[in-house]
Amino acid sequence: MAIKRKFISTRLLHKGMRIDQAVKDSTGRALIEKGAYLDDFQIEYLLDKGIGGIYISEGEADPDELELQIPQYTKDLIQKERKEDRKKVRLNAEVIERVGKGVQYLFDNSDSENLSEATNNVSNELIKVISDSDAVAVDINLIKVSDEYTFKHSVDVATMAMIIGKNYGLEQEELRELCTAGLLHDLGKSKIPLEVLNKPGKLDDNEFALMKQHSLFGFKILKERNEFPESIMLGVLQHHEKMNGKGYPQGVPSNRIHKYARIISVADVYDALVTKRPYKDGLPKRVAIEMIMAMTQELDIDAMRSFLKSIILYPVDSIVHLSTGEPCKVVENNKQNVLRPRVVGLKTGKVYDLANDVACASMLIVD
Question: How far is CA 229 from the centre of its chain?
Fold first, then answer.
């Protein structure tokens, strides 16, 4: 909605309207700044001063403009209520590029005798970055998902899997193995013909049947090396298996699915949902999370819960919009309910505890 300037009688003003002019005293000092959201005290002041009408603006400003328009009392409230996010993964573009190229080398040289050594080198770099940051969460807005078949996909899945694994309770050596399995989970796609792998549209039944074998192909590649632990090989083999036994390539029951595969599966499903393909748009992150929460028959519950504790959807200090239309600033995240943080309304200066306040039960973040 475009911003429009409108003159309105002071008697018709109400709290939350945004003023489009500065109100000054006789010395020229601004008593109400242009762009401020009016409160009851300011409206009463205008009426007492006999000001018949003022200009207001209708429509939403962009985030940068909203920052400039936040009244001081609301800024003070935000600072008082603000609680830092949990420590997050920090992967700069250089690291992502370097690890991605490492994964590409592994895919291009899957028959190499030094596959195990090269894999360890790539894994160690990603593990070091995550370990050095002591991260326990990942801002999924910073995960730059790309095409399903690019190598950054493997980096994204391995990164998310490691953080999920931390919250799942894995030991350090298990996290190292999980990282390797995450980086190699799609290694078998190196054996899929490029015309199928890069097809700009949905696969036919035969092509899809072949694609479903990629995890088995990856398992065989690793098994032939005779240098990888069975746990890593099972993480690669079973990352498309489902808890209801309806996954692939083997359709094994839940009690035979390795915990690495259960964790990688959640990260892989999320990445697939938000990724744009030639034949579909990626889903909004909020919608993808809601879909994962509904997949209780397919995904491991503990891995799903660990995923939800691992992600930050609305980082502290980000501006969001409630279903009421009000813009808000996030002041605290709730790791028990990633979709419902604690926010402060920029129009009302009111704190909305979306997860715990029953008065907020009908409110949703829509943007």
Answer: 31
